[in-house]
Write a structure and sequence with these properties.
Elements lengths: L8 H8 L5 H11 L3 H17 L8 H13 L14 H6 L3 H14 L13 E5 L7 E4 L5 E4 L4 E5 L7 E6 L1 E5 L8 E5 L2 E5 L3 E5 L7 E7 L1 E6 L2 E9 L3 E4 L4 E4 L8 H4 L1 E8 H12 L2 E5 L7 E7 L3 H11 L4 E5 L2 E5 L1
Parallel strand pairs: 5-7, 16-19
Antiparallel strand pairs: 1-4, 2-3, 3-6, 4-5, 6-9, 7-8, 8-11, 9-10, 10-13, 11-12, 13-14, 15-17, 18-19
């Protein structure tokens, strides 16, 4: 357990290595909310841990611990670094070799040392899509499927499904989760925590103003702030949840266009042209710009099912003759 003003490095190591169960994870997140210092420290740990994923190397764990112990002892007045009261030898005896590596890695990362574990148990699997790639399918060990939009990163522990089903997401992805009531599926995306048992839904971390959007196609999804799991809400099929730095809200019914990048299906009913253009940019991975004094008064109607972008723009132009459509390189310009 993490106590106020104290840091349980062993528990933090389990959390970062993907070994913490639900209760332990909640304990870490609650501890982070106790003070701005704790929250900042957890963010620093996450950042450093992610950096280590791309570094190759081996290290002497015992030597690293000895160096680390001395450095922490000399800085224990600065950010409340506190080690367990038990001697380090006894602490290590309670954990397997991989966990010793995780604990050492975590603490060394905080002190600015970039190292990576060579233990298979602690390795993470990372899948990334390029800017022009979308609908890449990732089959997880539990049978769940994740469809990645362009410029998206998904990562999870090599031990995914054994004790937990946690993934980290940056970008946008559609999830088709295999039901397992005993082992909920969780997505950590920015400051959002998405928790489900088995359902289909979309998570988008690229909304404006750093908002994170979750659209539920089927089932029920629990959406909460990762640093404050008590601030949560349940999203039912057809609804959209949006989470910001300090807010969380839902809209029902939601807009099925939220998964248009995957399905190609789009329906516009008196939709502002600015909203339509934003969706087309996401679906077709293009850059369309609009300008004009009264451009925001234009409304778009129509349904499309995987139609070429040129055809959609042609229809929009036919229904709005005041618009001029031009293309230069990879950019489309709409003006009034």
């Amino acid at each position: 357990m993490l106590y106020k003003n104290k840091t349980d490095w062993n528990l933090l190591a389990k959390y970062m290595a993907g070994e913490a169960d639900t209760r332990e994870t909640e304990s870490v997140l609650a501890w982070a909310e106790e003070s701005p210092e704790n929250k900042a420290l957890l963010q620093e740990i996450k950042s450093d841990w992610q950096k280590m994923d791309s570094i190759d190397g081996r290290f002497d764990v015992d030597n690293a611990w000895n160096k680390l112990h001395g450095r922490i002892s000399g800085n224990n007045n600065n950010r409340a670094f506190e080690l367990p009261s038990v001697a380090k030898q006894r602490v290590f005896m309670r954990f397997s070799i991989p966990m010793r590596i995780a604990a050492s890695l975590l603490l060394l990362a905080i002190l600015g040392t970039a190292l990576i574990t060579t233990a298979d148990r602690l390795q993470r699997v990372t899948v990334e899509t390029a800017a022009g790639e979308k609908n890449r399918v990732v089959e997880l060990p539990d049978g769940s499927s994740v469809y990645l939009n362009a410029d998206t990163k998904l990562s999870y522990s090599a031990r995914f499904g054994k004790k937990h089903r946690d993934v980290s997401l940056s970008g946008e992805a559609y999830f088709d989760v295999t039901p397992d009531k005993e082992n909920p599926f969780r997505i950590f995306a920015g400051n959002a925590l998405v928790r489900v048992v088995g359902t289909t839904f979309n998570v988008n971390t690229r909304k404006s103003n750093s908002l994170i959007e979750v659209y539920v196609e089927s089932g029920i999804v629990e959406l909460s702030q990762s640093g404050n799991i008590e601030n949560s809400l349940l999203l039912h099929a057809g609804s959209i949840g949006v989470i910001g730095d300090q807010s969380i809200s839902s809209t029902q019914p939601g807009n099925a266009n939220s998964i248009a990048w995957k399905t190609g299906a789009m329906t516009f009913v008196d939709a502002p042209i600015t909203e339509v253009i934003a969706l087309l940019n996401n679906v077709y991975n293009v850059t369309i710009t609009i300008e004009g004094e009264r451009i925001d008064t234009i409304r778009i109607n129509g349904s499309y099912q995987g139609d070429p972008l040129e055809d959609i723009l042609q229809v929009i132009g036919q229904h709005n003759p005041q618009l001029t459509i031009a293309k230069s390189d990879e950019t489309v310009y709409l003006s009034q």
